[in-house]
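Bench notes, afternoon.
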Amino acid sequence: MKRKAYTRLLEWKQDPHRKPLILKGARQVGKTWLMKEFGSREYASVLYANFDIDERLRGIFDTDYDVPRILTALQALTGVIPRPGETLIILDEIQEVNRGLGVLKYFCENAPEYHVMVAGSLLGIALHPGTSFPVGKVDMLDIHPLDFEEFLWATGNEPLARLLPCPDWQLLKILKSKFIDLLRQYYYVGGMPEAVFSYVQEGNLAKVRRIQENILTAYANDVSKHAPTSDVQRILMVLNSIPSQLAKENRKFIYGVLKKGARAAEFEVAIQWLMDCGILTKVPRVRKAGVPLKFYEDLSAFKLFFLDLGLLAALSGAPADMMLIGNQVFEELKGMFTEQYVLQQMVAREDLQVYYWSSERSDGELDFLVQKGGRLLPVEVKAEENVKAKSLSHFVAAHEGMKGVRLSMSDYRDQTWMENIPLFAVLYAL
């Protein structure tokens, strides 16, 4: 399975100032597979240690962080001789180990010639008690579910994917029905690697949904395992409310959807917990379009999006026929999947800061306001071929020199103040 992150791993390997690399990401986004695949292709050998499976590994850092001793122990337990520059050392599920992250500082300072990768759920890395983070001693790489371009690669549609970065709009218009059909499939399957692999190998929609439901169950089990007992119920309430939150016309997160009379103070920790483990993404509101957008953030208003489209479909109980036949997924689900889709493509990019804007009088709202370097991009998302963009037009008119983007099912056109870009070509828009 081809992943864009592979190129980043190559850059890391070739960097003379390379530090131990932490692959961050929610459970089951493909971190372990990516590390093993990279190791098998780019190194003479791979020393793989999984601290969740092999209990003998769990006390390896208890006495000290002496790197030669640790390397000897890893060799004894795995049978692989770690050789500088030739062996990729993979320390998987490191959140299961007391003081696990601390060893990375000593690899960085005392043994930089060894190539070390570490993975674990964001949950464990962020919340493991008694572990100090090795600030400045590690490199980090975020791993996300497959974006739409990677989904096209995985499903054997690489020739179509090559048309998107520098599009011939007339050709894309001819191929529009094919792209929209693939987009429907992506809405249902999503980008979790196991679900995509199963879909490609077997095409069994029911099995794909079972895989998605199993992942959701694993996330709920993580809540019970790792979260403070007093917070478990609130965390699950927030998690299970996401479909109804996104199904609203105004997707601003409303505490009252959780329960009558709910207040921010009651659920702030729960929301932060789900963000820390990578399951939810917060998109804050800004009051003003200025660079940097962070200066104008409204801390009291935000939207919450899910990790993955397919998992959102499973959590919502959206049936396959509604997702895959006709335009119901675009027309009858109030655009919730389409806005989730666009956000998911933006999150996979590391060069974008994503917010949304609404007026103080609540008479106008932009789905997203994106900062890329010193440039601001106002984005309106339409699930159908709706060509009206009232909020976008007013926003652009009020900000001289700004050009908007509308993502919709309509064909490409440039209206001077705004470009309409087909949803399947969202990566071009960004």
